[in-house]
Write a structure and sequence with these properties.
This protein is mainly β. A hairpin with a 5-residue loop joins β8 and β9. The chain is elongated, with a radius of gyration of 20 Å. It starts with 9 loop residues before the first strand and ends in a 9-residue tail after the last strand.
Length: about 210
């Protein structure tokens, strides 16, 4: 599922584990939970519970809110097939304060710009959309695949798209480059299609 369908939007998730947390005695007979999705830059796509729901096909009914029980669920632990994004003006109005709080607290204009770049989607980690894999040239002129946590999009003088971020893993065969280093990426056309690659010797200040 494209992360944009649930980022700062409402969705239903059918999972008995989450219902059990919010209603351990099963008094509501709910079978799903209403969540609002958002992206935690460090922990990835996350869902915050808003209420308990009875869900049958295209019909659903909010039974209660979370009764003060906080529940955040990381997308890594969710079966994507059980997630249903919804557009519901009444529920959005009811939970506007919670949605706005998530939007403000987890909103970063630099990251928002990177998340809007659909050309990066093939290289994103699905549950951590800010994390992008790229190919770097090694000392032996080979390619090494590594993960980069994107921080900001920029443009070179010639208009080339540059993505600035931090390296998430330790390279095996690239001297002088280490985990946590600031690196710059771009997308290039190759004989094997588009690839995201590291740009050697180019570092853009993203702070």
């Amino acid at each position: 599922m494209n992360f944009r369908k649930v980022d700062r939007k409402l969705c239903l998730i059918r999972d008995s584990r989450f219902v059990q947390v919010l209603d351990p005695e099963q008094k509501t007979q709910a079978d799903a939970v209403l969540f609002c999705g958002y992206i935690d830059h460090t922990r990835g796509l996350t869902y915050e519970a808003l209420g308990l729901v009875r869900w049958d096909g295209d019909d659903y009914e909010l039974i209660s809110d979370t009764q003060g029980i906080g529940l955040k669920v990381r997308a890594d632990s969710v079966d994507e097939a059980q997630v249903q994004p919804i557009e519901d003006a009444k529920l959005e109005a009811r939970f506007r304060s919670s949605i706005d709080t998530l939007s403000v607290y987890y909103r970063d204009e630099n990251l928002a710009g990177v998340r809007e770049l659909t050309e990066l989607d093939p290289f994103r980690y699905p549950q951590h959309p800010d994390d992008i894999y790229a190919l770097f040239l090694t000392t032996e002129n080979r390619l090494e695949k590594m993960w980069v946590r994107s921080e900001k999009a920029a443009r070179a003088a010639d208009g080339t798209l540059l993505i600035v971020g931090k390296l998430l893993n330790e390279p095996d065969n690239i001297l002088g480059l280490h985990m946590g280093a600031a690196v710059t990426l771009t997308v290039v056309e190759t004989t094997r299609g588009k690839q995201c690659v590291g740009v050697p010797g180019v570092v853009v200040d993203y702070r």
